[in-house]
Design a protein that fits this description.
- The complex is a heterodimer of chains A (288) and B (216).
- By secondary structure, chain A is an alpha/beta fold.
- Chain A folds into 2 domains: 215 residues, P-loop containing nucleotide triphosphate hydrolases (Rossmann fold, 3-Layer(aba) Sandwich), CATH 3.40.50.300; 62 residues, no CATH class.
- In chain A, 32% of the residues lie in helices and 28% in strands.
- In chain A, helix 4 packs antiparallel against helix 5.
- Chain B has 216 residues and is mainly alpha-helical.
- Chain B has one domain.
- In chain B, helix 2 runs parallel beside helix 5, helix 3 packs antiparallel against helix 5 and helix 3 runs antiparallel to helix 7.
- The longest helix of chain B has 32 residues.
- The two termini of chain B are 19 Å apart.
- In chain B, 43% of the residues are buried.
- The chains are: A alpha/beta (288), B mainly alpha (216).
- Chains A and B meet through helix 2 and helix 3 of A and helix 1, helix 3 and helix 4 of B.
């Protein structure tokens, strides 16, 4: 399977901050949706800024469709669409004027598609963007992203702050987008329920380090949380779990294969897990 | 790049319209002076104000960009960083041409009344206008890139005041350098405009250098 995006050993540090991206590596395969998960300040936006050359990187390589994103390579950017956590267009513009601006910039701008998306999203093309609600603004950003025949969508907290109805609508659009197997999406979010609905893979980041990249189905159907008493926990083989946390008298243990674990420790209850729970467990300080 | 210039102009569109309206109102004052008093003594001041009003445009699109964070999105578009800087300087030139056209229209309106015009003083205002329209963005844009879009208002005012100071300073010190037999005023005006053009061009390269390294 080819990758739309390959990030290898991406590092970035700041002079006045102890935070750094530490050898971030992961790929976004063609035709897939990669969820990028981490708590606030984990490095999601810094990673996205670094891969898009919004900030410089200290080291590492980033390849889009097998090529590095250099300033001179405008063509690659025609294939990339970016949606940030807020609309980035001047409030004085209307969608109609924005269309004129962007049709002069994108080589493959599709005006019919843009208009049809505006209609689908019920956005007035002659209304100033500054009068739009957050939901409307995000819909506009997504309409722009989908109107220039991009192959890779990069979304940074694009669904944050939206009501569930709008979020659901937007998630459906993302699923439609990846129906074409040459398309893919990298979506950073801390609303993990959204990612559970649409992502094929999940990458977890914590303190600037990639902790885990895994297929979503594996996480949901094979990973589990064993709920142990202290004595049971002490008797566990360290190789049988990846992290744990103590909650009152109980210890929650994250296991990678609940079936195998249950067979080995039949007296311990193993529950299904969610991406949220996995995230909490793998970033807990008690991790080994 | 056309799209970027278009975006800059759309961002400043409201202010541009307001400024053009105010400029027209001031032009009417000049016309009334001619019709009522039969002279155009304040024409040079009116032209001076017209140019000064248009300086406000330079800060407006930066404010808009600061609020919308357009510059962060802009860098993800299929354009080179040099295109962003080029589009800015071309937008500055468009604003400068609009302000010059407004002033020339005012002079034409006054000329139509057949009231005599003091071209010496009007010429001074126009040369100051051209000088400030080039010099202000030449100082302002690199400073904004370096210090941040959110400080654009303050930087714009300092740049405008700085360009006025330089214009006056040059007028005071240029005397001994005027060649014999040459009209000193004309020499100063042409010299001032040439300095402003050189500074505008230099500023482009400085801005380009800053923007290429800038982390948005």
């Amino acid at each position: 399977m080819k990758n739309s995006l390959e990030i290898t050993n991406l590092s970035k540090s700041y002079k006045n901050s102890s935070f750094k991206l530490d050898n971030v590596s992961f790929d976004v395969p063609n035709g897939s949706i990669m969820g990028f998960v981490g708590k606030n300040g984990a490095g999601k936006t810094t990673t996205i800024n670094a891969i898009l050359n919004i900030i410089s990187k200290d080291s590492g390589t980033v390849n889009f469709f097998g090529q590095q994103l250099l300033d001179s390579k405008k063509n690659i950017r025609n294939d990339i669409a970016v949606v940030f956590d807020a609309t980035n267009f001047s409030g004085n513009l209307t969608p109609s004027k924005l269309e004129k601006v962007l049709s002069d910039i994108y080589a493959n701008w599709d005006n019919k598609k843009f208009i049809s998306l505006l209609e689908r999203f019920d956005l007035n093309k002659n209304k100033k963007i500054k009068t739009f609600s957050r939901g409307m603004s995000m819909k506009l950003s997504i309409a722009v992203a989908l109107s220039h025949q991009a192959k890779l969508l990069i979304l940074d907290e694009a669904t944050a702050g939206l009501d569930p109805v709008v979020r659901e609508e937007i998630l459906d659009i993302f699923l439609e987008f990846v129906e074409d197997e040459s398309h893919s999406i990298l979506i950073s979010s801390h609303i993990t329920s959204d990612l559970e609905k649409i992502a094929d893979y999940i990458t977890f980041i914590s303190d600037g380090k990639i902790i885990l990249t895994e297929k979503k189905d594996t996480l949901i159907y094979e990973y589990g949380i064993a709920r142990c008493k202290s004595i049971d926990f002490e008797n566990l083989d360290r190789n049988d779990y990846i992290s744990y946390r103590k909650r009152g008298l109980q210890t929650e243990v994250l296991v990678t294969d609940k079936a195998v674990f249950s067979k080995k420790y039949p007296h311990i209850i193993v529950d299904n897990t969610t991406i949220d729970e996995i995230l909490i467990l793998i970033i807990k300080e008690e991790n080994m | 790049m056309k799209g970027l210039i278009r975006n800059n102009l759309y961002s400043a569109q409201n202010t541009l319209l307001i400024t053009a309206c105010l400029s027209s109102v001031i032009a009417i004052v000049a016309l009334l002076e001619c019709l009522i008093n039969g002279h155009s003594d304040s024409l040079f001041m009116i032209i001076f104000f017209q140019f000064a009003m248009f300086l406000g445009l330079y800060g407006v699109s930066f404010q808009q960009d600061s609020v919308s964070k357009w510059n962060r999105f802009e860098i993800t578009l299929p354009i080179k960083r040099s295109d962003v800087v080029k589009a800015r300087y071309l937008s500055f030139l468009i604003y400068a041409v609009i302000s010059l056209v407004c002033s020339i229209l005012t002079i034409i309106v006054v000329l139509l009344t057949k009231v005599p015009i003091n071209f010496e003083r009007v010429g001074y205002s126009i040369s100051f206008g051209i000088f400030s329209q080039l010099m202000t963005p030449a100082f302002m844009y690199p400073a904004i890139l370096k210090l941040g879009y959110e400080k654009s208002d303050t930087i714009m005012m300092i740049a405008a005041a700085g360009s006025a100071f330089i214009f006056i300073f040059v007028s005071l010190v240029i005397g001994p350098f005027v060649p014999n037999g040459v009209d000193a005023n004309l020499f100063f005006r042409i010299f001032g405009i040439i300095i402003a053009i050189i500074m505008f061009c230099l500023s482009y390269f400085v801005s380009l250098n800053i923007y290429r390294k800038k982390q948005l």
